[in-house]
Amino acid sequence: MSSRAAMGERVLERAEHSILLELGPDSDVAVRDSDSGALRCVGCSLRFDGGDFVAEGRREMLRHLLRHEEEGEQVPRSALDELSST
Ligand SMILES: [Zn+2]
Hints:
- The chain is α+β, with helices and mostly antiparallel strands.
- The protein has helices spanning 9-13, 58-70, 77-84, and strands at 18-21, 31-33, 39-41, 53-55.
């Protein structure tokens, strides 16, 4: 643990990257949320360098996940619904 953990529980509550979508049997993509509102597609397979794709907002991430789906990857419907509802 870093020294930031000693600053108090608020730090823990406001985790920088909460997990929105995890790799698993239902999903070929992993997406994380951050306080700034940016969303991150972790280790994005659509990138040539395998780095993270960063979307400025939910709408952009929704479009991005649909591209994954077009490539034949599995993206949970629930995640698409959640992104399109906000
Ligand atoms: Zn991606």
